[in-house]
Amino acid sequence: MLLLIVLSGLIISLCMGLRQSLGLFMRPMTLDLGISAATFGFTIALQNIVWGVSQPFVGALADRYGPRPVLIVTALLYALGLLLMMVSKSIPGGLEVAGFLIGIGTAGAGFGVLIGTISRATPPEKRSQTVGLVAAAGSLGTMVIAPLGGWLIDGFGWQAAMLAFAAIAGSMAILSLPIREQAVSDGNLSKVNQKLGEALREAIGHRGYLFMTLAFFACGFQLVFITTHLPAYLQLCGVAPGVAASALGLIGLFNAVGTYLFGLLGARYSQKHLLALIYLLRTLIIVAFLLAPISAASTLVFAAAMGFLWLGVAPLVTGIIGRVFGLTHFNTLYGIVFLSHQVGSFFGAWMGGLVFDRFGNYNFGWGALIVIGVTAFTLQWLMDERPPLERKPSGEPEAVPA
Q1: What's the gap between Cα 293 and its chain centre?
Q2: What is the distance between the alpha carbons of residues 310 and 315, in angstroms, rounded to a whole number?
Q3: So where are the chain's domains?
Q4: Which CATH number applies to 2-182+196-386?
Q5: Got the DSSP string for 321-332?
Q6: Contacts of 65 (CB under 8 A, 6+ apart)
Q7: How far apart are the C-alpha atoms of 310 and 180, rounded to whole Å?
Q8: What is the pLDDT along the chain (402 residues), one digit of tens a residue?
Q9: In the 8-state DSSP scheme, what is residue 389?
Q10: How many helices (H) and strands (E) does the chain have?
Q11: Is the CB of residue 188 less than 8 Å from the CB of residue 329?
């Protein structure tokens, strides 16, 4: 179990650290390749929408065949996509193909598959804390990879930095070799033999599941807008370029603390209300950041505060899904919720580029983050998190145990 936790945390750390540092390449790639901010933003957006669309299918493959083959194949696709970005100038549609491959790679090597594996191996009473621990460790990659990427870009050029990123992605395949599927440690034993179609119908008919899925859109919209466009926004405000890399690294550091803390809190308090508070606090922090004068100091404070709330959603969302629907089809059900997150990510990345190209600033984009964040808070707070059988009308007979 300890080896599984360590390897899962390391793989997620590398995967998410690479993904959240790609915004550093926007400025040098647009200048060198002669592409617009919207074109680069669309590539990041495509990664995120492909990640979301493929997550339920990648999750279903992991549910059926185990995590190891899925992890190895998707890690190699991730590395190939980064290599294509490096040589995209000489390949028609290279950026779009690269975005497609990186999206599939992230679906396999990111949270979806490994969090499901961890959840299956952990008793229900320890699940939230353990998932929080792995997600916290997984957030540390940004703290290292973002400054490393900034240093490589400044010292050796963006292509050398992208090659290093591809090598890091390829290493995830090697780290996946010892991972095996774990026996289900699930308190909801009635779900063990449930068919996939039945599980999907049950989830889609659950209003609380739909509310949580819609609220997760805001999470992706806010976070990917920030990771993709914060470096360019800071340059517009006259902040030194190195501050952006430091800010992304600081997000990773405080993310580790916040994610682990929310994992602990999720074992004691209402997980749906904690999720709602994360959405609300993020939105209030964005408002405070925009109202204060933009400087290196205010940016680092903003990054630390947002980092504290960054991936705290992971142990809470996974805890709700496991408790309400069981773990037999966990990866698939989580993948559907995550699809909403990635649709938000797509629009967050792409919309930011469109707004900048149209108006020369990000004012409209920041406003959209605030409105969507308040909406997510409301939906999540009102979520019905009772398991499906508890939601049946009183006149409807309960299922008779075999």
Answers
A1: 29
A2: 12
A3: 2-182+196-386
A4: 1.20.1250.20
A5: HHHHH-STTHHH
A6: none
A7: 29
A8: 778 888 888 898 899 889 878 888 888 888 888 888 778 878 887 887 888 889 888 988 888 888 899 999 999 999 999 999 888 777 777 888 998 999 999 999 887 788 888 887 787 777 778 888 887 777 677 778 888 988 999 899 999 999 999 999 999 999 999 887 655 555 444 455 677 788 888 888 888 999 999 999 999 899 889 888 888 888 889 888 788 878 877 887 888 889 889 989 988 899 999 999 999 999 999 999 999 999 999 999 999 999 999 888 988 998 899 888 887 788 889 889 988 987 888 888 888 888 888 888 888 899 999 999 999 999 999 998 888 765 555 444 444 433
A9: G
A10: 17, 0
A11: no
Torsion, Cα of 272, 273, 278, 284 (10° steps): 140
b/e per residue 274-300 (b: at least 16 CB within 10 A): bbbbbbbbbbebbeebbeeebeeebbe
Q: Which of 315, 336, 317, 333 is nearest to 325 (CA)?
A: 333
Residues 92-116: b if buried by 16+ CB within 10 A, e if exposed:
eebbbbbbbbbbbbbbbbbbbbbbb
AA letter at 115: I
CA dist 59 → 55, 72, 213, 244 (Å): 6, 14, 16, 33
Collapsing DSSP to helix, strand or coil, 145 comes out as helix
Which residue has 């034993």 as its token pair?
A: 189
Token pair of 186, please? 């699930």
d(CA 386, CA 364): 38
Cα dihedral 249/53/178/167 (nearest 10):
-50
